[in-house]
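Researcher: We're teaching a course module on how sequence relates to structure. For the next exercise, students receive a sequence and then see the predicted structure as C-alpha cells, so they can try to spot secondary structure elements on their own. Here is the exercise chain.
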Amino acid sequence: MCGIIGLLLADENKHVNQLLFDGLTVLQHRGQDAAGIVTSEHRRLHLRKNNGLVKDVFQAHHMSELRGHLGIGHCRYPTAGTSSAAEAQPLYTNYPHGICVAHNGNLTNTAELATMVREDIGRHVNTDSDSELLLNLFAEHLMASKQKKKDADMSENIFAAITAVMKECRGGYAGLYLINGVGLVGFRDPHGIRPLVFGCRRADGDVKGAIQMNVNGNHINEHGIPQSPTDMEHADKKLDFVFSSESVAIDTLGFQLVRDVKQGEAIFIDMKGNCHTHICHQKSLSPCIFEYVYFARPDSIMDGVSVYETRLKMGVKLAERVLTKYPDHDIDVVIPIPDTSRTAALQAAYRLNKPFREGFIKNRYIARTFIMPGQETRRKSVRLKLNTIKSEFKGKNVLLVDDSIVRGTTANEIVQMARDAGAKKVYFSSAAPPIRYPNIYGIDIPTRHELIAYQREEAEIAKKIGCDWVLFQELQDLKNSILEVEKAPMAERLKEFDTSCFSGTYVTGEQIGDAYFENLENLRNDDAKERRKRGLDGENGNGANKRAVASNNGCESMSNDQRGDAHTGVAPLSNH
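Model: And here is the predicted structure for the students to work with:
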C-alpha cells in the first residue's frame, strides 16, 4: 500500500516541491515507512528519499533543493521487497532520457520479470522491489519503440511501451513515470485494482470567463478545465496537471478532479501541456474493495463513488444483519473503534435506534496497527493508541464497530479494554466480511495462518478475541454498499470488485495453493519480517549473507548519499 502523486506546472519558473510535500502529507495514511520526491529543473533531476514520515524526511534545506516545475512523490509501506531506504521511491534509471517511477501496488509475476530484465534484456536490478522492474521494463520498451518507429511522435512511443509493460506484468498497480525533458505519465493496471485519479487547474489562477466550446461542441468550464474525458485533448493548454492515488490530495491542493484514470489506460502530459490518452491493455474494471472499507480517506472519491457514502451504507447493512441474527439483542450503546469505522458505526447506531458514543480516544501520533510490522509491536501499540472513557462502558452492553478484523490482535486488546472499563457484555462487529485470504495486489494482509478468520467461524473467532459474539458484514452487502451509492457517470462502469481477501478469488487468475502463495507466505509471515529487520535473511552456515545488502542509494547515483553532511542530502542527479 502506497501513496503516489505527480505534478506538471505550466509555468517553468514555478516549483512543485511544496505541492508535492502537501500532497504526500495528505496521502500519509497510505504508507508511513518511507517517502521520496524527485523533481526536474531544466532537465536536471533532484532527488530526496528516506525512511520515515513525510514531515521527517523533508526538512527546509531539502525542500529548497527540490526545484523544478515537474515532479513525482511517493509514500511507502512495503509489501514487496524490504524496508531498506534503497527501496524507497521514486526509483531512477538514466537511459533513455532519465526516467523515474513512483508505484503503488504489487506485481505477482516478479520472478519471471526479474529473469527477463536481468538475462534477456541485460539490465541491472539492484533491489528486490517490483517497482524497479516496472521502471526497467518501461525504459527498455520505450527505447525499443523509438528505434523501431523513428518517425513516431513521443506519445505513440510511450503508449506502445506501456502497452508492452501491461501485457508482461500481472498484478494490481498504478504508477507514474517522470520522463526527463519529455513529460509526466500516469497509468493504471488492466483491471483498475489500484486507484489513480487525474485533475487540473488554470495555471494563471483566473476563475473568470464564460464557458467555452471546443470543436466537438463539448463544454469546457470557466476554469478552462475539461468536464469530461472526451474534452481533455481540446483543453486550454495553460493548465497545471496532477495525478494522485486519491482525490483528497487533488482537492487539498486546489485542483479540480477530472476523473479516475481508467483501467488499462495511460495519460501522458507533455512539457507543452498537451494531454494525450490511450487505452493500452484493458480488461474488466475490478477496483480493490478494501479501499472503500479501510484504506481510502472518507473524503475521497474513487471510481465515481464517495467513500464516505459507502461507509454510511456499510453501517446500515451491518445494523440490519444484527437485527436479523439477533432480533432480541440487548445492546445499550454503539461505540466505534477510531477512526475508520466511525462513519459506519454512526449509521449503525441510527438504524438500531441506540445511542452512539465515543468510548475510545485515539492518540493520533501512533501508526495504523494492522500495517505495523511485528505482532508484538502491534499488540503493544493498541494500548498506546487507544484509551477508554470508562463512563461509556460501565454497566453497559456495548456493540463495538470496527472496519475489519485482520489478525485479531487489535480486536482482542480492545475487547479486554472494554471489559476493564466495566462493560457487562461486549459484542464485536465488522463492517467488512471475514478476511480469510492474503491480498496480493499491494495490501500487506498477512499469510492465511496469521488471519484470525482463516478456517474459523464466528463462534470460534468470538472466543479467540474474548467477546460475547462477533458479527461480520456479508460480502454481497459490502458490494451493494458501493453499488447503491453510484451517482457519477464514471460509476456506471462499476459492476465488480477485487474481493480476494474475502473470497479467495483473484481477478488476475492466481489460485490459492499455487507455488506463488507458498512463496508469499514465506516472505510475509511475521517471523520472516523480523529476520529481515535484523538482517539475518539469507544467511548461510557461517553467517555470511548470500546476497549483499543494497546500499542506501538504491540504483541512484551519489545524489542521495546519506553519508555526507545533512545539507548535501539532496543533490542533482546527472542528466544522461
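Model: If you want an answer key for the exercise: The two ends are 32 Å apart (CA to CA). The first strand starts at residue 2 and ends at 8.
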